[in-house]
Every structure is written in C-alpha cells, then in structure tokens.
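User: Sequence in, structure out. Go.
Assistant: Echoing your sequence, followed by the structure tokens.
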Amino acid sequence: MENSSRLYNTIVKVLCQHRNWLDIRHLYTLAWMMVGIILSECISLTAWTPYVLGRAKYAQSIVRRFQRWLNNPRINVHHLYAPLMKKALAGWGEYKLYLALDTSTLWDKYCIIRISVTYRGRAIPMVWKVKSSNVSYETYKSLLDAVPAMLPPNVVVVFLTRLC
C-alpha cells in the first residue's frame, strides 16, 4: 500500500498544477482512479479497489464513487486534459509533431474518434469523441478545431489519417 500512497501523492501534485477543477474532490477521485489503473494494469473499476486507500469499508463503495465520477456531467474532461497536454507538448521544439486522426468502432454501434500524438510507435490521445457508428465531417470538426490551441508555437505538424 505504500506504493499506492506515494503514487497517489505524485499524481495529485501533477494534477494540482492547473486550476480548472470545479471541486477539488474530483481531483482526488481521479488520482485514485489513475493509481488503480496503473497498479492493476487493468481497465476494470473493480480491479482498482485494492489500491485505493480511504474510509470506504466495501469495494462496492469505491466502485460507486468511480462510477459517479465517470458519469458526472459537471466534469469536463477536455477542459481538464487540454492544459496537461499543452504543457507536455510545450518543449517539443523544432521536431516534427505527428498527429493521427483515427476511429474505432465498438459493437457496430459506437465510433470513437480521436486525434493523437504519435511517438515511438505509441499514440497519445489529444482529443476524442464517442458517437454513433455513422460519422461525418461535422462530427469531428470540433476535434480538429480544438487541437491547435494545445500545440506549441511554430511546431511543424504532419497530419496522418486513413480515408475509407
């Protein structure tokens, strides 16, 4: 549990670097969710519970807390994430920045549209949206519009996409 606590404190320090939180408790819950996903190496909410320290007596209480966070309409994920991404890209310098527009379809019902930074064979999402499986330009235009504000000035961008 010492690893959980140290990782939690580090994540809280990083997340506190910007002031876009409507409620500081949202930051603490997100930090515990991040600890859980990192240490469990799994995306299941129940798998995260052994790594969470707190007053909750039952794992079910922790899972409900995470579910409330994920479904909270007051939490604007892009508003919180954009400053972190902007700071991460600030030192990119004169290197080319490769951005990829990608889509994934789930159960032939939903389509995840994302624009990611690609680096060393990995993709780090910058912006994303989940829509029904039919996706038009109007659907992802807002994602294209949001990306330039996160980029460092004068960076050379190579934009990758796959046309179907």
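User: And one key feature?
Assistant: Residues 62 and 68 are 10 Å apart (CA to CA).
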